[in-house]
Amino acid sequence: MGIGDIADDLLRGLGGLGSGLTEAFSDPVIRLGVTGLSRAGKTVFITSLVANLMDRGRMPGLRAAAEGRILSAFLQPQPDDTVPRFDYEVHLDELTGPAPRWPESTRAVSELRLSFRLAEAGLFGGMRGPRTLHLDIVDYPGEWLLDLALMEQDYAGWSAEVLTRIEPRVEAAGYMAQIAGLDAAAAHDEMRAKALAEGFASYLGAARAAGYSDCTPGRFLLPGELAGSPVLTFAPLPKPAETPRGALWREMERRFEAYKAMVVKPFFRDHFARIDRQVVLVDALGAIHAGPRAVEDMRRAMAGILAAFRPGRTGWLTGLLGLRRVERILFAATKADHLHHSEHAKLTRIMAALMREAKDRAEFAGAETAAMAIGSLRATVEESVRHEGRVLDCVRGRLLDGGREAAFYPGELPDNPAALLAPAREGATQWLDADYAVMAFAPAVLKLKPGEGPPHIRLDRAAEFLIGDRL
Q1: How many CA atoms lie within 13 A of 417 on its CB side?
Q2: Where are the domains of the chain?
Q3: How many percent of the chain have pLDDT more than 70?
């Protein structure tokens, strides 16, 4: 069963019809999906976005805020009673308290509703009175989104593709040794299956730490309540010539299909299929630092992600029936504060080039897309340092390791993104003419004025693209 089949199920569901009719005649709602791969900064993005939408002193690029049409913004209980609430207040305290620290990474789906009271624009706006708009922000791990591509694969095809891709990676050496000489046609043994699943999960963790993006199945890294269950006890294997009943291969195949049916499909149906707008956060700087293979892996992962978005405009009838299409997609390179502002335009061009395949596919389907370099929470200040007769444009911040203040020069990004993408596509193992450094900064101690949210880079422009037309 593919993604299109799941969407057909939704169309046939009377529940979708009822919810769509109810929503059509109540206050309008935008559902904004926020995702990204590990360390992209989803939690920080949502926390800073909400804080800056509630206190809009740093949001001049959000037109409705600049024009004074946002009368108020306030948090309300989210409409989904079975989905955990995004822990906004705790995360804001972590980021802006006297001893600021980065919050824990996203490990499950969560949701937050921010409601706006808006003054109507135009000559007759004052006659109609204010209106209400709800913004439902849905946070989910990017690894789960990558799983949607599994819906189009069978176990044999998935195993072959994964093993071919990971075989040259150092991180996969342990797992490849584990399956060397394995007879997948032998009778299934649960202890062997468990050892194989643990070995593959160990590889996925090492690959993610090394900067790779294709770390699926996502629940192997974030198992939650499924830890130790048979639905997570499978791994890719070379296909034997014969696959008799009761063979290890047959059982792995059955569990792969169960994972798609019991884990991936419910996520699509209950959360992802209801998204209107989407932001995909990408740690492009981290991938560049990790090398050409990580950059190419990220490019392919992002192109694969878009296949699940069903991009395009939602017509009035499909909206009434409760079916959604993602109308706007923002691909945002995070941690722009780790670079001097003179490098931001280069990072944006690199981001646009990385997302070109995904962007073209989305725009062909009728969705609007944008690429942007942002900093959800600015942790650095800029300064120029003279070194060996040169003036270097640096950033200064509090180092995550040890807490001391330090100036950092990350190097210059290329003006032409092809200088990165060409060697990445060609399978280069390292950059030939540059070494792109990266530094981990801790959040800065903030002194916020009344009416101001946390400092950021282009969060106002991101909000304008994602929801400005509805404000």
Answers
A1: 20
A2: 10-140+274-379+448-470, 146-267
A3: 86
362 neighbors 311 (Cβ within 8 angstroms)? yes
pLDDT in tens, 424-438: 888 888 887 666 777
**If we measure between CA atoms, which residue out of 39, 71, 461 comes closest to residue 282?**
39
> What is the spatial distance between Cα 416 and Cα 411, in angstroms, rounded to a whole number?
15
Q: Where do we find the tokens 């649960």? A: 190
**Per-residue CA distances from 366 to 5, 125, 310, 363, 466 (Å):** 21, 30, 10, 5, 15
**3-class SS of residue 77:** coil
Please give the helix or strand (H or E) that residue 136 lies within, else none.
Answer: strand 131-139
Q: For 245-267, what is the HEC assignment?
A: CCEHHHHHHHHHHHHHHHHHHHH
Q: For residue 25, with 0-12 CB atoms within 10 Å meaning exposed, 13-18 middle and 19 or more buried, which class applies?
A: exposed
Structure tokens belonging to residue 203 = 């590889």
- Report the amino acid identity of residue 87: D
Q: Round to whole Å and give the CA distance between 213 and 204.
A: 10
**139, 46 contact by CB (below 8 A):** yes
CATH number for the region 10-140+274-379+448-470 comes to 3.40.50
Tell me the pLDDT tens digit for each residue of 234-269: 999 999 999 999 999 999 999 999 999 999 888 877
SS3 83: coil
Show the tokens assigned to 47: 């926390």
344: its two tokens = 């931001």
- What whole-number distance in Å separates Cα of residue 277 and Cα of residue 139? 12
Q: What proportions of the chain, in percent to the nearest 5, are helix, strand and coil?
A: 45, 20, 35
Predicted model pTM: 0.84
Distance CA 159, CA 179 (A): 12
CB 169: neighbour CB atoms within 10 A? 17
Cα–Cα distance measured from residue 462 to residue 415, given in angstroms and rounded to the nearest whole number? 23
* 169 touches 207 (CB < 8 A): yes
Strand order of the sheet with strand 390-398?
A: 380-387, 390-398, 405-408
One-letter amino acid of 79: P
Contacts of 254 (CB under 8 A, 6+ apart): none
Q: Please give the single-letter amino acid code of residue 140.
A: Y
Residue type, 192: R
Cis previous bond, 217, omega within 30: yes
